[in-house]
Design brief:
Layout: E1 2-18, E2 24-44, E3 49-53, H1 65-76, E4 82-88, H2 99-114, H3 121-128, H4 135-140, E5 144-148, E6 152-155, E7 163-168, H5 175-181, H6 192-200, H7 204-209, E8 212-213, H8 216-222, H9 225-236, E9 240-243, E10 250-254, H10 257-268, E11 273-277
Parallel strand pairs: 1-8, 3-4
Antiparallel strand pairs: 1-2, 2-4, 2-5, 5-6, 7-10, 7-11, 9-10
Helix pairs in contact: 1-2
Length: 284
């Protein structure tokens, strides 16, 4: 079986407060995008998990989210057969695009079909939510207000779409480092529900005006190239630009195909990861 693992971007991200359990209370507008990894997964008679990938940067043992998810499913459902997985990576790591979580979500959905486990989306979320914070969202793959630690959803019904240019500097940002460096006394807090309203009304300028991310400032301290990319995107004519998650990938928004292609060509000369994408429709 082949299954696509779709990346996400955060159109808005607010770190609301610190929690007693050491995590942070979040409120985000998360959107699935068409950029994806491609996972091939098959059942084998020999017990165990075999994972390979085209990327030398990705571990293929118990450290990998795909491996952890497969292991959790096998343990819960007492699966005695094995699985063999190959992941063609296109989503970069430490980019804020949920590459690992997307892969984990795809694996549990594939195993659900292959082994006829009849898990609901809620069942899959419950089994994997502690493995990767973005896995629950990647299981649903729907535009949503996401809150808590990433497990609470208010789905947004909207046909809003536009062109996005993704650019990632070579250096990534550890989510943990970004959160640890965050100063809540001076942090910026984007208006999540204003963004939600703009999306519902398909108000392009409203979406542009409400782009915001509490983690952008601490992430820029680790990777100054984030600020450079944002500045250059806006100078090229993009209407808005923002980091996704804790970064370091920056996305630019435009309705103008000419600006999109000009930006792609400009950044492709200097950066290893440059992609054009759109929001993933719910039908996909």
């Amino acid at each position: 079986m082949k299954i696509r693992a779709f990346a996400k971007i955060n159109l808005a991200l607010d770190v609301v407060s610190e929690r007693d359990d050491g995590y942070h209370e979040l409120k985000m507008i998360m959107a699935p995008i068409t950029l994806h990894d491609l996972i091939t997964i098959e059942v084998t008679d020999k017990p165990g998990i075999i994972l390979t990938t085209n990327s030398s940067r990705v571990p293929t043992d118990e450290r990998n989210i795909m491996y952890k998810v497969a292991q959790a499913v096998m343990e819960k459902y007492k699966i005695t057969k094995g699985i063999k997985m190959y992941c063609m990576k296109h989503i970069p790591s430490q980019a804020g695009l949920a590459g690992g979580s997307a892969d984990g979500a795809a694996v549990i959905k594939a195993m659900n079909r292959l082994f006829k486990l009849h898990m609901s989306y809620e069942d899959m979320v419950e089994l994997t939510k502690d493995i990767g914070s973005d896995i629950p969202f990647c299981i649903y793959n729907r535009l949503a207000v996401v809150s808590g630690k990433g497990e609470q959803f208010e789905f947004i019904h909207s046909s809003f779409n536009t062109n996005f240019l993704l650019v990632k500097p070579s250096r990534g940002v550890s989510t943990k480092r970004s959160f640890n460096a965050l100063d809540m006394s001076t942090a910026l807090h984007p208006d999540i529900y204003k963004m939600k309203a703009a999306l519902i009304h398909e108000d392009y300028q409203g979406v542009v005006d409400t782009l915001g991310n509490t983690l952008e400032e601490p992430s820029i301290d680790f990777v100054p190239g984030i600020a450079t990319n944002k500045k250059e995107m806006l100078e090229l004519g993009f209407d808005g630009a923002l980091i996704s998650g804790s970064g370091s990938c920056v996305f630019g928004m435009t309705n103008d195909e000419e600006i999109l292609h000009k930006g792609y060509k400009y950044f492709k000369e200097s950066y290893y990861f440059v992609r054009t994408t759109k929001l993933l429709s719910h039908q996909d």
